Amino acid sequence: MNTQATEGLWRHARKLLVAMSLGGSLAIGPVHAAPPTADVNTTGLAVTDSTVKVGILHSLTGTMAISETGAQEAEKLAIQQINDMGGILGRKIEIIQEDGASDWPTFAEKSRKLLVNDKVAAVFGCWTSASRKAALPVFEKENGLLYYPTFYEGLEQSHNVIYTGQEATQQILAGLDWVAKEKGAKTFYLIGSDYIWPRTSMKIARKHIENVLGGTVVGEEYKPLGDTSFGSVINKIRLRKPDVIYAAVVGGSNVAWFKQLKAAGITGQKQTLLTISVTEDEVLGIGGENLEGFYSVMKYFQSLDNENNVAFVKAFKEMHGKDSVIGDVTQAAYLGPWLWKAAVEKAGSFDVDKVVAASEQGDIELHTAPEGYVKLHPNHHLWSKTRVAQWSKDGQAKVVFESDLIEPNPFPEGYQ
Amino acid sequence: MGGFSYEELQAILVMQGFAGLSLFSVLLLMALGLAIIFGQMGVINMAHGEFMAVGAYTTYMLSTITETYVPGFMNYYFVFSIIAAFLVAGVIGYFLEFSLIRHLYKRPLDTLLATWGVSLIMQQIFRSVFGAREVSPTLPEWLMGSYQPTDTIDIPLNGLFVLGLTAFVTGAVFYLMFKSRWGLRVRATTQNRLMSGAVGINTKMVDRLTFALGCGIAGIAGAAFTTIASTGPTTGSLYIVDTFMVVVFGGAASLFGTIASAFSIAQAQSIMEFFLSGSMAKVLTLLTIVVILMLRPEGLFSIKIRK
C-alpha cells in the first residue's frame, strides 16, 4: 500500500475516532473494502479476510480477580464498540480470553498459548507488575504485542508493550506539588504495602519531597500484603503528627487501613491524606463513609464531567450492569483496543513490528478517551493529565485539581 | 523519643496497649473454632477461613436486606447478624461433617486434603454468588468512630466491640466445654472413644455437634471482622495462616494454650511493629515462633495423655 493511501485511510480513521458516536459499519464497509489478508498480515497472525483474533489475559479467579474484573469488562466494551463500527481494516475482532488466575507463572504460560497457539494479533491484559514481568519475556521472545492498563512504577520500556496507565512520576509528582501548594504541607508520612510498586513510588515521592519541595519525611512504613492490623502504625502516625499521610496500601489491607483510621478518629476533617492506590473499585470494599474527605491522585475518576466520559459510563453500565463502577485502570484498559486500532490503521497492517513502529511516531492520539485527550509518546507511554479528587460518602470523588498534559518519563533522572 | 510531652507519651502507651489487646482478640476469635475442632477431634479443617467468610457474607446480606426493607432497624441488625452468622456457619458445618468428614476420621491426613478441596469449592461458590469484588456491610453508627476518655486518647469502638465479643465467646466456650454435661461428653469422647460409647454417649452426635460448634464460632469471627476489614471470596485464605499459627503455637489440644499463644503473638507483633517496620515485625514474630516450635514441637501447652 502506498503512503498516500495509508494517509487517506489514517485520516479517515481519525475522523471516525473523533466522531465515534456516528459509528455504523455501513459507513466504511463498502467504501473501503478490506485490504487483502496477505497485505496486512505477513507474519502468520490469526487474521482472515473478515476477522482478527486478539487475546484478553486477566485474572478471573484468585485474589486479583477483584481488581482485574473491571479491566477486562472495559476491554470487551471497547472491542464491541469497534466491531459495531466495522472492525479494524474491515475485520471484526474476535476475543480469546484466558485466565491468569492471580498466579504469575500462569500469566507467562497463557501468554505463550495466546501468541504461539492462537497467534493473536494483540493481547490486552495483565494488572500487577509481577504478572507483567512474568509475561514480558514471552512477549519479547515471540514478538507479541501487549497493552498494559495499570498505573505502575515505571523503569520499563519494552518494544512489545504499550503502557496505557500512568507511570510513577506522572501520578506522584503532580499530586505532591498540589498538596504542598494547596495545603502548605511540610511533613509527610509514607505508608504502603510491601512490594515493588509502593516501594518504588515511595522512593520517588521521598526524593521529590526532600529535594524539590523542601519538606521532610517523618516516617516510612511498609506492611505485608493482606495484613489487616494497623493499630501500631496509626499510633506511630499520631506521634509524628505529619501534615500529610501519603498512602499506597493495596488489596484487602486497604479496607482494613481506612476502617481503622476512621475508628481511630483520624478522618478527612482532621487530617490530610493523599493516596495513590484507591480508585472507585476499591471504594466498593472500603465504603465511602470511611474515605470521606481524603484525596486520591489518579488520571481518571468516574465523575469526570465531559462528553466522552458521560457516553463511556453510560455504555459501560448498559453492558455490565447499572451498579458497576469504573476506576482508573478500567478506563485505561478501555483505551487499549482503541490505541491498537489507531496504530493498526496507521500502519495499514496487523504485523506487530509495523504496529509498534506506527505507535512510536508520537502521533497516535485519541480525542474520544473518557479521561479526555491522550497521545501516545514514542516511549510507549501516554501523555495524560493527573487529577486530585476528594472522596465523598457516596463513593464518588470530586475533582479538585487537574494538571496539564504530563509527559511520560519512565526513567526519571534524579529519582532512582 | 525527645520532643514529646509526658501526656502524649502516656496517651500513645495506652493506645498502643489497646492495639495489642485488639490484635489479641482478633487472633483468639479466629483460632477458637479451629482449636476446638483440631483439639477435640484431630481434624485439621482447612476450610476454617471459608466458614469465617460465610459469617461475613451472612452479615453483608443481612445488612443489605435491612438497608433495603427496614432502614430504621440499621442500628440493631448487627447483633442479629452475629447470631445468624453462627447459625448459618454452624448448620453448614453440621452437614459437612455428616456428608464428608465422618467418613475420614480414620484417615486424618486425608481430612487435610478433603477440607482444602471444600475450601476451594466454597471460594468458587462465593465468587459465583457475590461476585469477585470485595464487599463491606454498612455498619451501624455506634460501631464507627472512637471513644475518647481524654483529649489525646482515641480508643477505636470496633476494637472494643471485637474485644468484648471475644471475651463473651471464650467464656461461653469454656462454660460449654468444662461446666456443661455436653462438654463432659465431648471431653470423654476425646479421651476414650470406645469407653464413652460403652457408657451410652452418642459419640457420632458429639463429633457432629463439635464440628458444627467450631464452624459456628468461625462464623461469629467472620461477622466480627466485617467491622475491621472487607470480605471477598478469598478472604478466608488470608486468615487461615494466622489461625493455624496461633493454634499450632499454643499446643493443638489446649484451649488455654490457644489463648496464651494468641496473646503472646499479638503483643510481640504489635510492640515490634511500633519500633520496627511492619514487615520486619512480622518476620521477627514468625522467626521466634519457628525457633520455639523447634525446641517445643508440641507447642506452648500440651495436655499429657496416655498414648
Written description of the protein model:
- The complex is a heterodimer of chains A (416) and B (307).
- Chain A has 2 domains: 3-166 and 304-384, Response regulator (Rossmann fold, 3-Layer(aba) Sandwich), CATH 3.40.50.2300; 169-298 and 388-402, Response regulator (Rossmann fold).
- Chain A is 42% helix and 17% strand.
- Chain A is built from 14 helices and 15 strands.
- In chain A, helix 1 runs antiparallel to helix 13, helix 6 packs across helix 7 and helix 9 packs across helix 10.
- The longest helix of chain B is centred in the N-terminal third of the chain and has 36 residues, at 6-41.
- In chain B, strand 1 (146-147) and strand 2 (155-156) form a beta hairpin.
- The N and C termini of chain B lie far apart (54 Å).
- Classes of the chains: A alpha/beta (416), B mainly alpha (307).
Brief summary:
The complex is a heterodimer of chains A (416) and B (307). Chain A is α/β, with parallel strands linked by helices. Helix content of chain A is 42%, strand content 17%.
Please give the order of strands in the largest beta sheet of chain B: 1-2
Number of domains of chain A: 2
Structural class of chain B: mainly alpha
Query: What's the overall average pLDDT of chain B, rounded?
Result: 87
Tell me the span between the first and last alpha carbons of chain B.
Answer: 54 Å
Topology:
The complex is a heterodimer of chains A (416) and B (307).
Chain A: H1 3-18, H2 37-40, E1 51-58, H3 65-84, E2 92-99, H4 104-117, E3 123-125, H5 129-141, E4 146-148, E5 161-163, H6 168-182, E6 187-193, H7 196-212, E7 216-223, H8 231-240, E8 244-248, H9 251-263, E9 272-275, H10 280-286, H11 288-291, E10 295-298, H12 307-320, H13 328-347, H14 352-359, E11 365-366, E12 374-376, E13 382-383, E14 387-391, E15 397-402
Parallel strand pairs in A: 1-2, 1-3, 3-4, 4-5, 6-7, 6-8, 8-9, 9-10
Antiparallel strand pairs in A: 10-14, 11-12, 12-13, 14-15
Helix pairs in contact in A: 1-13, 3-13, 4-5, 6-7, 9-10, 13-14
Chain B: H1 6-41, H2 48-69, H3 77-99, H4 108-130, E1 146-147, E2 155-156, H5 157-178, H6 181-191, H7 193-198, H8 203-225, H9 235-250, H10 255-275, H11 278-295
Antiparallel strand pairs in B: 1-2
Helix pairs in contact in B: 1-5, 1-8, 1-9, 1-10, 2-3, 2-4, 2-8, 2-9, 3-8, 5-6, 5-8, 6-8, 9-10, 10-11
